[in-house]
Amino acid sequence: MLNPQLTPDGKLRHLLSTEGLPRAILNQILDTAESFVGVAEREVKKVPLLRGKTVCNIFFENSTRTRTTFEIAAKRLSADVINLNVNTSSQSKGETILDTIDNLTAMHADMFVIRHAQSGAAHLIAQHVAPHIHVINAGDGRHAHPTQGLLDVFTIRRYKPDMHNLRVALVGDVLHSRVARSEIHALTTLGVPEVRVIAPKTLLPQHVEKLGVQVYHDMREGLKDVDVIMMLRLQNERMSGALLPSAQEYFKCYGLTPEKLALAKPDAIVMHPGPMNRGVEIDSAVADGKQSVILPQVTYGIAVRMAVMSMLAGNSA
Amino acid sequence: MKILIKNGRLIDPKNNIDTTQDIYIAAGKIVGIGSGPAGFEATQTLDASGLLVLPGLVDLSARLREPGFEHKATLESEMQAAVAGGVTSLACPPDTDPVLDEPGLVEMLKHKAKQLHLAHVYPLGAITRQLQGKQLTEMSELTEAGCVGFSQADVAITDTQVLWRAMQYAATFGYTIWLRPEEPYLASGGTAHDGEVASRLGLKGIPAAAETLAIASILTIARETGASIHLCRLSTAEGVEMVRAAKQQGLPVTCDVSINHLHLTEHDIGYFDPNCHLRPPLRGQRDRDALSQGVIDGTIDAICSDHTPVDDDAKLQPFGEAEAGATGLELLLPLVCKWADEQNIPLPQALAAVTTKAAAILDIPAGELSLHADADLCLLDPAQEWKVEASVLQSQGKNTPFLGLHLRGKVRYTLVNGQLVYQAA
Amino acid sequence: MILPDAEATFEVLLQKLKPLITDNTALVGIHSGGVWLVDRLLPLLGRPVARGTLDISFYRDDFDQRGLRAENKPSQIPFDVQDQHIILVDDVFHTGRTIRAAMNELFDYGRPASISLAVLVDRGGRELPIVPQIVAAEIPLPVSQNLQLLQSEDGRFHFELKDSL
Questions:
Q1: Residue A153 pLDDT > 90, yes or no?
Q2: Distance (Å, rounded) from C-alpha B210 to C-alpha A275?
Q3: ipTM summary value
Q4: Could you tell me which residue ranges the Aspartate/ornithine carbamoyltransferase Asp/Orn-binding domain spans (chain A) (predicted)?
Q5: Hey, what CATH topology would domain A147-293 get?
Q6: Which residues lie below 8 Å from residue B45, measured CB to CB, with a gap of 6+?
Q7: Which residue in A18, B67, B348, B360 is deepest, having the highest Cβ count within 10 Å?
Q8: Chains that touch B (3 or more CB pairs under 8 A)
């Protein structure tokens, strides 16, 4: 089966998932992002690469935060940006997701950034669009959030450049997390030898070990000697019910406290894709502590998204 | 109308026939095999050299979408599809709109189908009114109107007491209860097999236990109530094993599998192909192997198309939101041939699962080439290759996981009640 | 065609540059050849001079045709561009498009007092009204040929001539 993300000659056409992307392409994204980090520190934080191009942020699921980072990234590349929040009501009026895309294509959009509550939505759109249009998945259901996964890996590489000698632990709701899936695929593709997931069984997907990770249920055991701790967000509605009894018990077992952090390597870094639930996944002392790289993650997020957009825009099918 | 079919290879699993013989048809019946009755003069002769002459297929599940879903398919389009696929008798589940829970609706459907002079339609009545799992339907009246069994289609009866009563009531009259075993709470919100692929793609899973748990409940209640049960669309290895054990204990239980599940697994979902969104979900390789084995050893009685035409608007959606189901009437026969070929089992044995054994479950006189039987049959060119494409399908439903696949075996002629109802262009 | 010795040409460049260096001069090399030149030049100028590098990937005018190059390096201008006399350094001067992109990028860092251009070789073929002030060698070449500066592991330069297509 042809990888729907690549052009026939193997260049990145869409970014839908970190899974199945060659290591060379992942490295190219990270290296290019490195160049864009410098751009943000200049007096003029803009480069003319996407001048005259139109980037369309289509959010079928609301997320001001993610949308903003894509918007800044596109604008720093000199693209014009259209933001569209498609609430489900206009969809229930009979317009299908592909109708929406066709409409925007008719307005000469060059790139779509898609956020949707259903896994596979970005793939569907990518299979549908004209050859000159590029699709970036900004999160589809539980499936993937590749730019977030890449910015996390970028952050890791900045602090721990030797990827071949790392132990990374993902803690929390892997089951519902598109970020976790994207991180796992990116890390394993880039040759990180040990990726651990730490969670209760209710928050792990079936056969999670087939993604190439080691499974731990005991956080103290799982954090031992790790270099990187990635905390995952726990959605409010999942804190009490059949998945978990309460936020308190979750924090007791899987919240990252200074004591638990001490089990990791002394120079371990702590990450979180945001927004954080302080006192549920992470203790404030850790979130604001000196091992936390949560704010740099946000900064690098823009550089990584600029890198992805500029690579895609230059690769037509 | 007297028809002579010459030089074809006759395969009739029911009578264990696999030989080159002529077949004589008059007044809607088979009047001679090998030799015709004295003075038989054919008004039409079909040269079946190189063709297989088969009993018309009996499909245990084909949704015709009428009444209520005419934008997906119409009775006429789907009945055309049936005969184009060599299917001459089909059972349709009651999940129309309105639901087949009243005798008048069943009579209307039978009447409309009959007017088309294509395949025979055998409706399954709803077990509960509007499939709501609360109040029983008038099973006796529905039977008189033409229902051959009672089904909940894809809707579970969550209240086990209602399920118990339904089986008791059906057992009173000797009606068969058709259930697709799926425990609704475990399956809730799921769109794919709860396995490796769903985990990778981030799709909500339906665990195999949803099927086995339901089978366990159904079999337990069946044992207590003495009801005859037909389990629809088995999908798991464990499910097959449970049915095998129940049959060994002598429970009156039969079951079927969809042809899709004999060919495909969760891996065929690929990059979220909504055509592979089926119910039950496509499962693992081990399950597929066990299903095949189940058909081969007879644990699974019948193979059906599970024909479910879906319109593009409903299908071209993200995987989880895409409506489940695939068109199948025109693919059933070639896919059964392909399956037999791949499993290396004799074609007549495979064909039994779509003819005589399926007819036995419906308790209808069909799926055989016996002398004096109704002349429902199809002539298949087993060597003809064709590509599955929207443009070649008669069905209004164009979505199937097999789109683009090259299949071998195309129906050339179909006869129902001795009338030529389909002839390939 | 006989190419001049690259090391000798470099020496010419060095000598021509020396008198132009003032307190406010910065040398900015354009990746990759220009950066090699700057790094060899700096210790030979006899006084501290600010160093910068530019990768013009994000400013190329042929992005729509050729896309983003697989290899790009961060630009580094670690000094305040404002009121600085900047000497752009590149290996081979051809169409002038690279220099235009470099100047555009430079202005995104601030407003320099002046920009001049020093190149090892002017091979002719300019397509823009841009002229280098300092040229170590002039080697007119047909469009079909491509002159490249290479650096061996010991840091020494040599030229390579290739057919473009």
A1: yes
A2: 35
A3: 0.93
A4: 165-311
A5: Rossmann fold (3.40.50)
A6: B3, B4, B5, B6
A7: A18
A8: A
